[in-house]
Amino acid sequence: MKKIIIILLLFCFILPLAFGELKVGFYESSCQKAESIVKNVVKSRFNRDKTITAALLRLHFHDCAVSGCDASILINSTQSNTAEKESGANFDVRGFDIIDEVKETLESACPSTVSCADIITLATRDAVALSGGPQYEVPTGRRDGLVSNINNVKIPGPSSSVSVISQFFNKSLGLTTQEMVTLFGAHTVGVARCSFFDDRLSSPDPTMDPGLNAKLVKLCSSRDDNDPSTPLDQKTSLLVDNGFYTQILAKKGVLQIDQQLALDQSTRGFVTDIASNGVKFQKNFANAMVKMGSIDVLVGNQGEIRQKCSVVNNHS
């Protein structure tokens, strides 16, 4: 009887090690400088280009929203497979170069140790803090996925209804409606091209502030470049703050879905609450980012640690 109990206890201790789990400070023993290396590269880029925060936030979400946070969005297409990054939903997603830069530095310091999935998560966290957003810890220990297929990308577009977006966040991602509204706060540092919202300008949209409408009509009619862009937060477009919510409450949402968050009964209360409390936004945003970054992660012996983020390792 004692022998059975001992075996069961050993099994209980071995099981978590076999399957692994995310934890804060995962690389403390295997690559002690991992997080500081990520932070230094991100800080250097941020000092030259403050829009990198918006790029990383979008990259992180578009990775997690497809097959979980497994860095599958970084994989390049091959002759036999069209990858996620080729999807229309991922048009204009950028930040791949900074992830590659971090990865190259980490491979020199700690070969085949730090996953590309963790790099995305850490880099996004650091960029958010540099942009005035919350400073928070993220658990690490993610592994990289082996599959990236364009057919798996089913992210709703900017003209989708609140109910469609909510269903995607609730059922596909396991996030609450409140967390969804909070994560939309990432739009406080984002931009949108005219092609994403010019359908709202063809005839005056009663849900859009007339002043903003006139400004956007002028921008989009010029077409000096092929598809001009404008900040989603017209006031503090480089700061991670709750300004986005005060903007959409004033009918100054650029994207249809952004504006609908402030109008729909299922989300308006959350918008109003966050708009009136910047400290609460910072706390909620940090918590929502940590939860989003844990969606369907690969851990333990699952997946791999890619040596180069754009291609899976050679398993031959």
From TrEMBL:
This protein's UniProt keywords: Calcium, Disulfide bond, Heme, Hydrogen peroxide, Iron, Metal-binding, Oxidoreductase, Peroxidase, Secreted, Signal
Active site feature: H62
Chain ranges of the Plant heme peroxidase family profile domain: 21-313
Signal sequence extent: 1-20
Catalytic activity: 2 a phenolic donor + H2O2 = 2 a phenolic radical donor + 2 H2O
Binding site for substrate: P156
GO CC terms, sorted: extracellular region
Gene Ontology biological-process annotations: hydrogen peroxide catabolic process; response to oxidative stress
Main location (coarse class): secreted
Site (Transition state stabilizer): R58
A molecular-function term among this protein's GO annotations: metal ion binding
Function: Removal of H(2)O(2), oxidation of toxic reductants, biosynthesis and degradation of lignin, suberization, auxin catabolism, response to environmental stresses such as wounding, pathogen attack and oxidative stress. These functions might be dependent on each isozyme/isoform in each plant tissue.
Name of the protein described by the UniProt record: Peroxidase
